[in-house]
Amino acid sequence: MLLKRASDIPPSEITPESHYRDRRRFLKTVAMTGAALVSGALKPGSLIANVPDQDTQWKPGPRGPFDTNEQVTPYKDITTYNNFYEFGSDKEDPSRNAQGFRTQPWIVKIDGEVRKPASYHVEDLLKLHKQEDRIYRHRCVEGWSMVIPWLGFPMADVIKKVEPTSRAKFVELTTLYDPEQMPSHRTRLLPWPYVEGLRMDEALHPLAIFAVGLYGKMLPNQNGAPFRLVVPWKYGFKSIKSVVRIRFVEQQPRTTWNDAAPNEYGFYSNVNPEVDHPRWSQKFERRIGEFFKRRTLAFNGYAEQVAHLYSGMDLRKFF
Predict the structure, then answer these.
(1) How much is the pLDDT for 215?
(2) pLDDT tens across 80-104, in order?
(3) Residue burial 195-233, b: 16+ Cβ < 10 Å; e: rest
(4) For 60, what's the count of Cα atoms within 13 Å in the CB-facing half-sphere?
(5) Within 10 A of 108 (CB to CB), how many other CB atoms are there?
(6) Any domain includes 309
């Protein structure tokens, strides 16, 4: 996963293009190379719009602390092969069904065990951090995987701003519930609204990020617009999309997939190839665009960075 911290982006530039095209044209391409994405080209009052076509070879720029030399998944694949169950259960459903999804205005409520509860417009959350270049790898592993160049910032920036109390041991996140816009909310496909959670030390890890874009462009609706979580050492379903509430709690929160199938989806959901899903092996994954499978890496290749968070835990029991 490649990520650059967003700078202070005005609201007009994170609004879907169709909403503001008549009053302000979206900025033209700043650059067509990865160097533009990671070199500081993203400045207050600008947003990189270099969305490559499927034939463009996107090349990363300077190396960062979590960089990877793996080839980035093409933009077309990232935006047409998705899990976003609110818009359907087939991989192609979100890109078809989420096009009219309204993401402005977007309010994120932060409450629970914090000293400074508040409700933020999503663009205000972008101002809670300092601009800094960061490059990460993210592979969404659920039998298939991708490498995605995210635009966002560490979850820790928001956490520190609201000042959790000593009783805050976990972070619970909730997706928008809107049966009018999200067709699956009118079904019993899953217990709604979608809820996920992290332990506090997981949430504070610099690899856990809030993403607002990918490939240098605002986050597409089918990928979790306008504000989503990315936790690259966990399975993809842990990375909740279209977040509207962040609640700090003392007890481990109930989560959607754990409620729906507790024998298949644990709270931690760390990538562990030694623990098979009840219905399939997790020892191998298929990278989108590749024919042959590859061996799945522990913690999705981030063991050096995150394994210490689970020291002494039985990772078969706490899966």
Answers:
(1) 85
(2) 999 999 999 999 999 999 999 999 9
(3) bbbbbbebbbbebbbbbbbbbbbbbbbbbbbbbbbbbbb
(4) 24
(5) 21
(6) no
Q: How far apart are CA 216 and CA 86, in angstroms?
A: 25
Question: Looking at the 3D structure of the chain, how many domains does it have?
Answer: 1
d(CA 226, CA 219) in angstroms, rounded, equals 6
Place of tokens 């809107």: 178
Number of residues assigned to the chain: 319
In this structure, is residue 77 part of a structural domain? yes
Positions in the chain short of pLDDT 70: 1-65, 67, 128-143
Burial class (CB in 10 A: 0-12, 13-18, 19+), 139: buried
Cβ neighbours of 173 (radius 10 Å): 26
Does residue 253 fall inside a structural domain? yes
CA–CA dist 149, 66 (Å, integer): 12
Query: What CATH number should be reported for the domain holding residue 244?
Result: 3.90.420.10
- The pLDDT score that the predictor gives to residue 71 is 84
Residue of 35, 8, 51 lying closest to 218 (CA atoms): 51
